[in-house]
Write the structure tokens for this entry.
Amino acid sequence: MKYVLVQADGMPDRPIKELNNKTPLEFADTVTIDNLVTNSIIGAVNHIPKGLKSGSDVGNLSILGYNPKNFFTGRSPLEASGMGIDLNEEDAAYRCNLVNIVSNNKEKIMDDYSAGHIDDSIARKVINFLQEGIDNEEFKFFPGVSYRHLLVWKKGDTSPITVPPHDILGKNISDFLPQGSSSEKLNKLMGTAREKIAEFKKLNKEYRNLPFNNIWLWGQGRKNILPSFESINQISGSIISAVNLVKGIGKCAGLDVIVVKGATGYLDTNYSGKVQAVLDSLQKHDFSMIHIEAPDETGHDGDYVNKVQAINDLDRKVINPLIKNLKKKFKEFKICIVSDHPTPIELRTHSYEYVPFMIYDSRKSISNHNQNTFNEKTVIRSDLVIEDGFTLLGRFLKD
Ligand SMILES: [Zn+2]
């Protein structure tokens, strides 16, 4: 028996006027998913326990069966693990975004949390330039993917209050800079980084017009230690993602983290390479999770056209070839489609509504409903609501 979990990051949304008051998932042309749904269990699930902030860190832990209340120690240690950085127990890891901040009537406004989805190679140059320029043993920068980088603060403090930059788009940053004990150090570092980035742009005029001029530090925490997925579930598995956070959770969980060339975490990702990686890994393992980031990113962009595209691609370029090949190669399999959290277009950040999930079993119909499409509205009609999202995995892997 093979189990494939498809994590459509941030896919759930709210009705959008321009889409005839449909959600992007409702509006998208999801022929393959809808073909499966009539024989599937559907329901709504909550991956963000009360008191925790909605995000892919908490959400993916829950999806992989870990109760975030017991196992969440901050976002960045998970990303560090995905980047192959071994933290010491007393180190503080911070997420370091390359961002664009613009001046408007004496206010400084968070304009772009993603530096226009900057190219890895350019971002790497910027981060390396920062590291050389800052020359401080206490702080070490590590370049990651696109705008997502990491700062390790040796024997650092994790107590400052920080805010994700995607939560303050269009807002005055002065209300959201790191606060609390030892936050001056971080604010000073961000100030120095601003100067260094300006210097970098002077030296590299070809990048002058790209939308980045600052770093933003957030999502801090200390080293995360998880019991292995295999020890809990008695099967081994793999994880396929473009995103270091998700790779990091996989690594902490002892899953086989498979790197796919051309996986970008955006609409231009290498879908077929990722699907192939799932199929290949199932020769060795019984479980594989494929993470698709584009619905979340397009939600943050506030771009409903692209979000619908991301969901169409999920159906056509991920679920369709997966099902075809699973049928051919393995015959008996289950597939679960779920999301970590909603990323509504109207908010451009994560929210807390329960998310749709479906479980399909190739051996038999396990339907608990009479719906023929899969979306935020139809799953509610099934009456299946899972409050403790981390228990969904056990349900999926059962028999
Ligand atoms: Zn997100």
Residues 10, 56, 296, 300, 343, 350 surround zinc ion (CB under 6 Å). DSSP finds 14 helices and 13 strands in the chain. Residues 92-221 form one domain.
